[in-house]
Automatic annotation (TrEMBL):
Top-level division of the source organism's lineage: Bacteria
Cellular component, GO, one term: membrane
InterPro entries associated with the record: 2Fe-2S_ferredoxin-like_sf, 2Fe-2S_ferredoxin-type, 4Fe4S_Fe-S-bd, 4Fe4S_Fe_S_CS, Cytosolic_Fe-S_CAF, Fe_hydrogenase, Fe_hydrogenase_lsu_C, Fe_hydrogenase_ssu
Cofactor: [4Fe-4S] cluster; [2Fe-2S] cluster
Name of the protein in its database record: Iron-only hydrogenase large subunit
């Protein structure tokens, strides 16, 4: 370690610590713009400059590793002036008005301008847009006139997600961020994950916002407007109302949604439970075909509920599309059921149902517009709405979410299990599946195998996790599956090999290993989520998001799971009822194949 002096205060830091990190440790505030905790150092904006004794020029603190004892000053006049000039220059090139920008009050450039008293245009001002807004994508909108060239989106796309759609184009004052051949986003290999939006410091990137259409539907008395709410938004939306990360607002959100005019509020966790039954059954069938019938089937089975991951696979590894579970995501299963089962049960014409999905994800907007997603005979889900957009709607309605009384979800989908809820965290789909598969196959209670039904080997934030579940004993086949497999003897003594990975850079590692015939090619089931942390870190979640915040959101989800009376998908009585009343030929039966499964075609 090395002793440094910052503003005459001595501090010992490990070798290689950046000045910015050392200042943070000393609780000295340094303004930043191109810096983001999730990303590698860029050092391009220079907003974080400091004085280092003996050096002729000011140094970017984010890009200066401490390798020798040095004296640093962060509050000198030269530092103040340099920072202010940089912000002045950025503002002069920034087209657009703050009041009409979705990042108003949550914009890092605006905050810096306030902090440094930049309240007029010292270097002139751009009065005409230079770029066309690219709203070709269902998910991500690019407005390059608001870009500050911090390259956080570029580093997110290239390094964090290893997709590589965005890059700096041209040089000097013509530099801008663009796509391959300057094509619209919808025509390049964007996976719609929206991670670039989460890391953009300004309003240059945003999600394709359906609020106006949803308000219009709410105002239309001929429309029956329903909303399903995904597991992750409830664990994060409080942040939009100034609450500390890590607290769920499930009951408050239900009340707020009714007050702003939704006719019914449904829980996506219900259809996550259904997904477990369908996807778990599919896995059992694939294993049965491979191990007993010696048929050629695609293994490992990959989860398919993250639409960013599905798109990633379609773009980069299309030869593995058959490995994707044919089970639709919970969002899409729910959409198909609302316009069929629910419409029949309530006598509402499905043509008059407007189905909204509150999601933490920008790719869900793309997913609901996929041509495969019309199995009800209508567009199964009409609009994907992000956590940020819903928070805005709630504010527009004059509601302060944390003060809402709590209320429940609506029937006939009112019950959901903790297994459905934990889908929102990386490893959650796998844990939910295991809670059911272990009970189905062994006949034992999962609590007798894993304390409190917490399957800890698949939890955590490690980018790639691998686990083996030995099946030492088998029980009777449950009634729900008796038409598919005669017994479990063929699984006795087998070891279920599973893996979990989040973030597409990690997905690439797993896929390359599979291609090379490595350890992951021997897995039976792999959970892939496109976003770091899983859905709770989705591209539609409150900004900022970083590892600390993602961990808090995960805590909120796991704490809520613990508090729920039902924690296994197969114990959800409304799911059982659905198979009794509607999906009468059982999981992976004819009807569920028509409504709840699909086959992705690139
Ligand atoms: Fe997700 Fe899913 S967990 S994909 O992360 O399977 O978006 O939250 O809703 O569909 O349930 C997202 C979250 C979400 C689906 C479920």
């Amino acid at each position: 370690s090395i002793t440094v002096e910052i503003n005459e205060k001595k501090l010992t830091v490990p070798f290689g610590t950046t000045i910015l990190e050392a200042c943070k440790q000393a609780q000295i505030h340094i303004p930043t713009l191109c810096h983001h905790e999730d990303l590698c150092v860029a050092g391009v904006c220079r907003v974080c400059v400091v004085e280092v004794e003996g050096m002729r020029t000011l140094q970017a603190s984010c890009a200066f590793p401490i390798t020798a004892p040095i004296k640093i000053k962060t509050t000198t006049n030269a530092v103040r002036k340099a920072r202010k000039h940089i912000i002045d220059l950025l503002i002069s090139e920034h087209y657009g008005e703050c009041y009409s920008c979705f990042r108003n009050n949550n914009c890092e450039l605006q905050s810096l301008a306030k902090e440094y008293g930049v309240d007029h245009y010292n270097f002139g001002h751009v009065t005409q847009p230079r770029f066309e807004v690219d709203n070709s994508s269902y998910s991500v909108v690019r407005d390059m006139d608001k870009c500050v060239l911090c390259k956080r989106c570029v580093r997110t796309c290239i390094d964090l997600q290893e997709v590589g759609v965005l890059e700096a184009i041209d040089r000097g004052h013509r530099t801008h961020i663009g796509t391959f051949l300057e094509k619209p986003l919808a025509e390049v290999i964007c996976i719609n994950c929206g991670q670039c939006i989460n890391r953009c410091p300004t309003g240059a990137l945003r999600a394709n916002d359906p609020r106006d259409e949803i308000w219009a539907a709410i105002d239309d008395p001929t429309k029956h407007v329903v909303i399903q709410t995904a597991p992750s938004p409830r664990a994060a939306i409080g942040e939009e109302f100034g609450q500390v990360p890590g607290k769920s607002f499930t009951g408050e959100l239900n009340t707020a949604l009714r007050r702003i005019g939704f006719d019914k509020v449904f829980d996506t966790n219900f259809s996550a439970d259904l997904t477990i039954i369908e996807e778990g059954t599919e896995l059992i069938l694939r294993l049965y075909k491979a191990l007993v019938k010696k048929e050629k089937v695609a293994l490992p089975q990959f989860t398919s509920c993250s639409p960013g991951w599905v798109k990633y696979l379609e773009h980069f590894y299309p030869e593995y599309i058959d490995n994707l579970s044919s089970a639709k995501s919970p969002q899409q299963m729910f959409g198909a059921l609302i316009k069929t089962f629910y419409a029949e049960k309530t006598g509402i014409n499905p043509a008059n149902i407007v189905s909204v999905a509150l999601m933490p994800c920008s790719a869900k907007k793309f997913e609901c517009n996929r041509p495969e997603m019309n199995s009800s005979g209508y567009k199964d889900v009409d609009y994907g709405l992000t956590t940020r957009e819903l928070a805005q709607m709630i504010k527009e309605a004059g509601i302060f979410l944390p003060e809402m009384p709590q209320s429940h979800f609506d029937d006939p989908f009112g019950e959901a299990s903790g297994a459905g809820l934990i889908f929102g965290a990386t490893g959650g789909v796998m844990e939910a599946a295991l809670r059911s598969v272990i009970e189905f196959v062994t006949g034992k209670r999962v609590e007798d195998v894993y304390a409190n039904a917490d399957i800890t080997p698949v939890r955590g934030f490690e980018g790639i996790r691998y686990a083996e579940i030995p099946i030492t004993e088998v029980g009777p086949v449950p009634k729900l599956l008796q038409h598919l497999v005669p017994d479990w003897n063929w699984l006795k003594g087998a070891t279920l090999k599973i893996a979990v990975c989040h973030g597409t850079a990690n997905a690439r590692k797993v896929m390359e290993d599979i291609k090379a015939g490595g350890k992951f090619s021997e897995c039976h089931f792999i959970e892939f989520m496109a976003c770091p942390g899983g859905c709770l870190g989705g591209g539609g979640q409150p900004i900022p998001t970083n590892e600390e915040i993602r961990k808090k959101r995960a805590e909120a989800i796991y704490n809520e799971d613990k508090s729920l009376p039902v924690r296994k998908s197969h114990e959800n009585r409304h799911v059982k009822e659905l198979y009794d009343l509607f999906l009468t030929d059982g999981p992976c039966g004819h009807k569920s194949h028509k409504l709840l499964h699909t086959h992705y075609v690139k």
